[in-house]
Each structure stands twice: as structure tokens, then as C-alpha cells.
Amino acid sequence: MGNADLERTTQGRDRTSPSKTAEIGRKHPVHQPVFERHGVPIIVFLTVCTKDRKKILANDQAHLLLLKAWDAANEWMIGRYVIMPDHIHLFCAPADLNPQPLSRWMNYWKSFAARRWPVPDEAPIWQRHFWDTQLRRGENYDAKWDYVEQNPLRAGLVESVEDWPHQGELNVLRW
Fold it and tell me: In what helix (H) or strand (E) does residue 130 lie, and over which residues does it extend?
């Protein structure tokens, strides 16, 4: 492991990109436990992809099912989210002082949605792993949201970000 890789890991969160992950011998992202800093909220930015990047998420049925899954998996609160055809970006925060591990919560809602998926031929639905980053500053939340909100526009799916129907905010996550 090089000095830059060691520095990323010892700072509490591995910021390694997918291509760098393969380069250093890992086949999936590292999921560090969230950490609490005095007086700073815990907000995590997640990206979850469909298996083989199937374009099956950007429809009303999938959107409603995901809302039900997130409601059932109530150990973490969903803030802002954008559902793209083959992936989801969302912000989340623990719902209580002793949150269950992020990966367990993710597995729960992904399984909930997969068991109720309206088109059985599309199974499996999800990639096994996900990408997560715990935000360190309020500016990161705003900057990442600006990037995420533009995804449908950059993909040519809408002419204005306000036109994308598969987005929302379930809870206001305050920095």
C-alpha cells in the first residue's frame, strides 16, 4: 500500500475510487463504521447500483416501492434522494443514538424491495455492494446535492432538474 493509500485509510474513511480499489487488490468498496464527532451530525452519502446496471428503477412503481422499503427500514432516515434508471443517490442519517450498521440497514431495504419487485424477470435487482461517504462539512452536503440533482439533466433525461419525477426529500437532514 502506498503512502497516499495509507493516508486515505488512516483518516477514518477510505476515499478510494472504484478504479483505484481494483488497482490495490480489493474487489469491493470498504464500508467503515460511521463515526460521531461532538456536535457534528452524521450524514452519509450513498450510491446504490442495480445488478449489471439494468435500467429498471426510473419508473413510478419502483419509486413507490423504494419509498415503502425505506419507510420499513426505519433505523436510518432518508434525506434527499435521486433515483436514476440504474442507480440511486441518497443522503441518510441515523434515526437514533445507536444506529445499526449501515450495511445491515442497506441489506434490509434492498431485500425488502427485491422480494416485492413487480417484474420477477428483472431479478436480481441490486449489486451486492454500495458506495458510501460520511460527510465532514455542511458544504459537502450542498455540493454533493448539487451534483446529484444534475444527474438526470446530464444524462439527457430531462431539460430541467425540476422535471425529474424520481427524486425527493423524505426527512430534512440538517448540518
Answer: strand 126-134
